Amino acid sequence: MDEYCTGPEQAGPTPGVAATTAGAEEQGPFAECVLCREPTEYPQTHRGITLCPRCEWLEAQRSACSG
Fold first, then answer.
1. Alpha helices, H only, the chain
2. In whole angstroms, what is the distance from residue 67 CA to residue 50 CA?
3. Are 64 and 5 a contacting pair, CB within 8 Å?
4. Vertex 16, ends 10 and 22: CA angle to 5°?
5. What is the DSSP letter of 33?
């Protein structure tokens, strides 16, 4: 398997995710992921497509490993 195309179970934690989600309760309501409907790191007022950290990672892997 290509070293850059590892699955989520082989990858380490996403840097910065714990820091941004630690105080999520104080920041207000978050937008839902357009793929899985889980809360994202973005506020509901965020414009554009919103993805949760997991779906963002999966989409990045799909685009990086395609071809």
1. 17-21, 24-27, 53-65
2. 25
3. yes
4. 110
5. P
> Residue 14, Cβ neighbours under 10 Å: how many?
13
The two tokens of residue 21 are: 């989600």
4 close to 64: Cβ distance less than 8 angstroms = yes
Task: Write out pLDDT tens, residues 3-60.
Answer: 555 555 544 444 444 444 445 445 679 999 999 999 999 999 999 999 999 999 999 9
Is the distance from CB of 53 to CB of 8 less than 8 angstroms? no
Distances (CA, A) of 30 to 5, 15, 38, 58, 66: 30, 20, 9, 20, 31
